Write a sequence for this structure.
């Protein structure tokens, strides 16, 4: 085995690729939660995105349509959640769980005819630079456009929440919907938008799996990544940058432990398999110790039903 | 009015009784560990179920049933709802199957890949996949340039360990410098994780990828990286046309049809079935022409010899990792030893997770 510098570059490249679905889904859910809505349907929206993206790719043979379509499908399915929780005032937790179960079932049904079709190769950018520059090549180049977008997203999200008026509105709605409403903000409308945005990002995260990471459709292919993304948001205390760090640690240790096994480290394999979960939680808890900041970031009205008295 | 009602009622009861006697509502249930669309393990069991259905027998199935407490609930549900024969198609269903079988002595149970038959209404069946692994090992030993074979393993059970050993022994025979690197993923089915494991093994120098997991992700990763791979459980060739050298294919259909008919006609007996290349329960996919005509010929001969019994996958002398003898020279491993295999043979790197 070679631990030279170019090998580490390749390793970091594959760690980045594996954390993309977590970053996308968690960033989307973060906005939803900052507006005070707890949507446990991340896994369901991801799997719908995965099948929609793959099906559209097979039917239209156009990857752009497939990517946009997967985001739209996430939006459509999150409209159901939004209508139930915001207009009919149902319980967020129960509705979100139902959305996940519904999504998994619906995707299996829609996907019946798409099993066993090999996917199409997704174009990667700057592939020549990847080979020619050691270490930095595999890290910076030779990825799909979705990966670059995913890595920009936490910073954009951070900027949006902290520096823009709209971001302030979202946070106000999440912290105190009653005061926000008294200020003349349409709380329900803001929450709807945040739910739909979360759906779009989850759809994209699913499409990344079925179009780019493992280009194929198989039932239940998200395999619990939606739940990990949900947990990341909480452990990152609703901070977009910490979500990025958490996703990288999770992806990183997942890949590293596989390498350690292949090298033949004499550490119990079960421990290695549990390591990604353990380390992610430990690191995120340690870096988010500042209780003042936690209070600042936590959407106070998370999961509570809001209705405007008339 | 009432007279008519009773007349209908009585004829209905008669019809019902008649239909029970004629076995028209004989039903077979299947419990799957993965989705029918996994294109691997469960897909092949589902093909078997389709064959039973085509033979005119009613079937139902429950897919993606986790091994453990849920499995017992599902099996019990099937037994309660009038199924006469139930196939439970994963190793982890062993204890739940036996537990439910005790409470339903009139229902017949068939458990795949297990060894516990605690009640007279439980049969077990499995395929000698290791014969296929022997062929893969032979091909891998000849095709590798880096002398490193990457192996993605699911859970440390005898079935998986047997496959690793059979493959390594066959590869050593044609290439004494071979190294087997193993990554345990602790899942049967997680495309993302399987792809990551394959990539890790490739990055560690493996130029042959073998899997004992169920999705097509590892062969696709191998195709992308330009290394060789083998399909698992079903023919995965179209997912990696350049990379796949051959596939081990499980063909359960003849067995399922035979057992379902036996149960319907009342000739079902408890038994332990372990079929291989000879009976066709294990079959090989088409060989990749990149292997070269000579190697293909060699492997086809070996396949014939394994089927006829002339060659055995576990022929002595076989040593464990510490050098203790497992099978003496000139002997072959008996089925009991194969069924309970829990140590690596010499040449495999690392420890078996406990």
């Amino acid at each position: 085995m070679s631990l030279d510098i170019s090998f580490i570059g390749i390793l970091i490249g594959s760690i980045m690729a594996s954390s993309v679905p977590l970053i996308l889904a968690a960033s989307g859910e973060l906005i939803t939660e900052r507006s005070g809505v707890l949507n446990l349907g991340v896994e369901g929206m991801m799997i719908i995105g995965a099948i929609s993206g793959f099906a559209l790719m097979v039917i239209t043979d156009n990857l752009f349509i497939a990517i946009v379509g997967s985001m739209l499908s996430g939006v459509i399915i999150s409209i159901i959640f939004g209508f139930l929780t915001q207009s009919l005032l149902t319980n967020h937790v129960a509705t979100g769980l139902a959305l996940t179960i519904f999504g998994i079932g619906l995707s299996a049904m829609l996907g019946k005819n798409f099993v066993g079709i090999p996917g199409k190769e997704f174009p990667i950018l700057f592939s020549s630079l990847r080979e020619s520059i050691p270490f930095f090549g595999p890290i910076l180049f030779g990825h799909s456009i979705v990966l670059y977008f995913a890595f920009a997203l936490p910073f954009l999200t951070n900027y949006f929440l902290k520096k823009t008026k709209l971001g302030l509105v979202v946070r106000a709605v999440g912290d105190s919907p009653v005061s926000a409403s008294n200020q003349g903000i349409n709380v329900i409308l803001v929450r709807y938008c945040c739910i739909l945005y979360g759906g779009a990002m989850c759809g994209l995260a699913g499409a990344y799996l079925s179009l780019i990471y493992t280009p194929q459709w198989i039932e239940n292919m998200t395999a619990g990544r939606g739940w990990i993304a949900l947990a990341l948001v909480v452990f990152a205390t609703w901070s977009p940058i910490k979500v990025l760090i958490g996703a990288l640690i999770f992806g990183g240790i997942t890949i590293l432990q596989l390498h350690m096994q292949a090298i033949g480290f004499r550490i119990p394999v079960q421990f290695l398999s549990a390591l990604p979960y353990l380390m992610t939680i430990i690191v995120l808890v340690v870096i988010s110790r500042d209780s003042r900041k936690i209070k600042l970031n936590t959407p106070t009205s998370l999961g509570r039903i809001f209705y405007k008295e008339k | 009015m009432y007279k008519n009602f009773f007349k209908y009622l009585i004829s209905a009861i008669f019809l019902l009784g008649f239909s029970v006697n004629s076995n028209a509502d004989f039903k077979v249930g299947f419990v799957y560990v993965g989705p029918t669309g996994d294109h691997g393990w469960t897909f092949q069991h589902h093909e078997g179920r389709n064959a039973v259905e085509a033979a005119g027998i009613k079937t139902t199935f429950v897919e993606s049933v986790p091994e453990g407490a849920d499995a017992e609930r599902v099996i019990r549900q099937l037994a309660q709802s009038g199924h006469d024969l139930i196939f439970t198609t994963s190793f982890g269903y062993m204890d739940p199957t036996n537990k439910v079988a005790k409470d339903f002595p009139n229902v017949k149970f068939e458990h795949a890949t297990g060894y516990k038959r605690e009640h007279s209404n439980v049969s077990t069946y499995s395929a000698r996949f290791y014969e296929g692994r022997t062929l893969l090992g032979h091909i891998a030993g000849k095709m590798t340039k880096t002398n490193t074979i990457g192996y993605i393993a699911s859970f440390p059970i005898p079935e998986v360990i047997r496959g690793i050993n059979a493959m390594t022994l066959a590869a050593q025979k044609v290439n004494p410098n071979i190294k087997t690197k193993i990554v345990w993923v602790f899942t049967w089915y997680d495309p993302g994780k399987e792809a990551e494991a394959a990539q890790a093994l490739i990055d560690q120098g493996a130029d042959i990828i073998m899997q004992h997991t169920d999705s097509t992700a590892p062969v696709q990763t191998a195709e992308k990286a330009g290394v060789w791979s083998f399909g698992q459980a079903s023919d995965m060739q179209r997912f990696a046309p350049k990379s796949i050298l051959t596939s081990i294919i499980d063909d359960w259909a003849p067995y399922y049809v035979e057992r379902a008919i036996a149960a319907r006609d009342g000739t079902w007996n408890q038994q332990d079935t372990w079929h291989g290349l000879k009976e066709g329960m294990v079959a090989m996919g088409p060989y990749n022409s990149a292997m070269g005509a000579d190697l293909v010929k060699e492997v086809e001969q070996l396949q014939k010899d394994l089927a006829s019994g002339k060659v055995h996958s576990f022929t002595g002398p076989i040593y464990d990792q510490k050098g203790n003898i497992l099978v003496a020279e000139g002997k072959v491993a008996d089925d009991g030893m194969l069924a309970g295999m829990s140590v690596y043979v010499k040449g495999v790197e690392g420890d078996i997770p406990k």
